[in-house]
Specification:
alpha+beta; nine-stranded antiparallel β-sheet; 15 helices; 17 strands; about 35% helix; globular
């Protein structure tokens, strides 16, 4: 299907929908005027932040430095770093990036800030900052490659630019999924996307990234279960909201299974350390590299109750009256699609009588005359694509070029990838060459010099692999 024939609403509701960039759809938001300096005077409470050495672009959150600061201290550190009472004083801004990430606005923002965000234009009336999170960071801060287990994501860029590197869910096999470090609703990739180790992660060579530079005023649509690595190219502010989908009922069961297994295996790990004199101090335990900061590990009996609740919700829930993806589709139905070099109009599906047809053809002829006049007024050397942008009045508003439009993000397919064997969309691939004997031999070679804890960690990663959890879910359904 050519882009000129693209039906955006049908695309969004398709499981193969790529990421989309929505342009000029948040110009009415009051938050579009925000910057870090302004917010530093309005958000006054202490906030947790993570610092990462600029020379290391793929540290896990458990490996980063964590401090509690006010936004005023954060901004002052960015500017001069001359206040010795500032918790960030001991870190040089040129050596560290700093990220105040994943903060629910309802927990930190004044009430007037919540109404400065309005997702109604995307089909969600009444949804504002109350159901949004804010991300404030310096140039160089990043979020490790992962996918969110629940819903789809709408990300509004407020200040600065960010680079997004995305991968589709059917390429999960190439991303080496892991649940260590554990975080509710996030499946991480073991791959250092910016500087991959192909000896350790050879399959990653076959992955096809979708790369986006998200500019202020743009909103990125991240489809369900798409992998993404995000880095700030400048000091930045982003606001996002996760929208639930009907498929989340099953995802909640999978997450509940993962929690049950993780809490059990975590206890077994601690016992193993004690038995083999690998016991950590209480201080070290707080810095556990298996668990992301802020994540609470509940007792097993509590997790079993949550699993029962998730199963009850999945199999006892009535069909929802509203499908959230349909709500988004309906809101975007008449927004035009723009390619990299010109504008594409969405294919219009309608039935019309002869009178309507004649009126449309007359309007088309009048428009052609206006375009020709525009060419003459501007000179014969006017480029065709620029002429189309300037003269297509149905795509322009009275404010000039600030009209809404959508860009479809395309993959950066490598030229030498055409002969590669791809996995199916369930993430599986041909494993005939990987016989049990060879796998056991390989595992033994890797583990012969490792501690009991390291071997156990490999076991836990295997048990908590998303494919294993899916198999367990299938068994529970029987």
């Amino acid at each position: 299907m050519s882009r000129s024939d693209t039906d955006i609403s049908a695309m969004i509701c398709s499981p193969d929908c790529p990421p989309l960039i929505f342009n000029n759809m948040t110009s009415q938001w009051e938050s579009r005027q925000w910057n870090i300096e302004l917010l530093s005077h309005q958000i006054t409470q202490k906030l947790s932040c993570k610092l990462s050495p600029r020379e290391s672009q793929n540290l896990w959150e458990t490996q980063c430095i964590h401090e509690d600061v006010t936004l005023k201290e954060f901004y002052s550190w960015m500017q001069t770093n001359d206040d010795k009472s500032n918790p960030l004083y001991k870190y040089q801004p040129e050596d560290f990036s700093c990220y105040i990430d994943y903060k629910y606005m309802k927990d930190i923002s004044p009430k007037e800030h919540l109404k400065a965000v309005d997702w109604e234009v995307f089909g969600f009336p009444g949804r504002d900052g109350t159901e949004s999170t804010i991300w404030i960071g310096t140039e160089g801060c990043y979020t490790n490659c992962h996918y969110d287990t629940y819903g789809f994501n709408l990300v509004a860029q407020i200040q600065g630019r960010k680079r997004w590197i995305l991968f589709p869910p059917w390429e999960s096999f190439y991303l080496y999924p892991t649940r260590i470090p554990y975080e509710e609703s996030s499946v991480f990739s073991e791959v250092n996307v910016k500087n991959p180790d192909y000896q350790q992660h050879s399959e990653f060579k076959k992955a096809n990234p979708y790369i986006v530079i998200l500019e202020p005023g743009q909103v990125l649509y991240v489809p369900r279960h798409w992998w993404h690595y995000v880095e700030s190219l400048e000091d930045s502010i982003s606001i996002n909201t996760w929208i639930d989908t009907e498929e989340d009922l099953e995802s909640r069961v999978s997450e509940a299974i993962t929690r049950c297994l993780f809490s059990t295996l975590l206890g077994a790990r601690d016992q193993l350390k004690e038995d083999h004199q690998e016991h950590q101090s209480k201080k070290d335990h707080k810095e556990d590299n298996w668990i992301n900061p802020g994540e609470e590990i509940l007792p097993l009996d509590t997790n079993i109750q949550l699993l029962q609740l998730a199963l009850t919700m999945k199999y006892g829930a009535e069909e929802k009256d509203k499908n959230t993806q349909n709500m988004l589709c309906n809101a975007l139905r008449n927004i035009p699609v723009r390619g990299n070099d010109r504008f594409y109009r969405k294919k219009r599906k309608f039935s019309e009588n002869l009178e309507t047809y004649d009126k449309r053809e007359a309007a088309k002829n009048l428009k052609s005359e206006q375009e020709e006049k525009c060419k003459l007024d501007r000179g014969d050397n006017l480029k065709e694509d620029l002429n189309e942008e300037l003269c297509s009045q149905d795509l322009l508003t009275s404010s000039g070029h600030d009209f809404p439009y959508i860009v479809i993000v395309e993959s950066k397919i490598k030229e030498d990838e055409s002969k590669e064997i791809k996995p199916s969309k369930n993430g599986k691939t041909d494993l005939k060459s990987k016989t049990p004997a060879n796998l056991c031999k390989s595992f033994a070679e890797r583990c012969k010099n490792e501690t009991y804890s390291k071997v156990f960690e490999r076991l836990v990663k295997s048990v908590l692999h998303p494919h294993v959890i899916q198999t367990i879910l299938t068994q529970l359904n029987q």
